Amino acid sequence: MRVSRKAATLAATAAVAAIAWASPAQAASTATVPGGFQAARGSATASGTLVFRAGWPGSYSVTGTLTVSENDGQCYYVRYYLPTSLLGTGVNSSRQCGPGAVPMQRTLGVQLVNYGVVLALCSTTPGAPEEATFVAPGANCTII
Fold first, then answer.
1. pTM for this one?
2. What's the angle, vertex CA 41, arms to CA 40 and CA 43, rounded to 5?
């Protein structure tokens, strides 16, 4: 039996709507990204875990460490970005300029149609302003 593209799209939309509007009793499922994450950029490394909690609203929790091994004139941070059906939203971890480590711990709530989470290890010059909330990670970032 062949299903039309329109029927398949309608069925997929209904399935997503059913998941998005799950009751609080159904909202307890969680998923941890196997093996965690890690990335390197310049003299910085970032590593940690990412956990997704389903439900309404859902959330992504990031826990880890950003480490800079030497002073190379750059500041490093992790950008947490949620692409959505409208404008995405993003926030940054604390910056680390020069040798040292900074803990990363952030929970991002998901309240709109969401297309996952993007983590990026970014670099910038000291004193540079942060990106606007809706800006996706750019050329100064390595996607994790």
1. 0.73
2. 95
Cα separation of 50 and 34, whole Å? Answer: 9
Task: Return the pLDDT at 53.
Answer: 81
Paired tokens of 40: 């390197």
DSSP structure string for 40-76: EETTEEEEEEEEEE-SSSEEEEEEEEEEE-S--S-EE
In order of their start, the domains of the chain are 5-143 (2.60.40)
List, as own/partner pairs, every contact residues 139-144 make where C-beta atoms lie below 8 angstroms and the sequence separation is at least 24, other chains included. Answer: 141/41, 141/79, 142/39, 142/40, 142/41, 143/39, 143/118, 143/119, 144/37, 144/38, 144/39, 144/46, 144/78, 144/119, 144/120
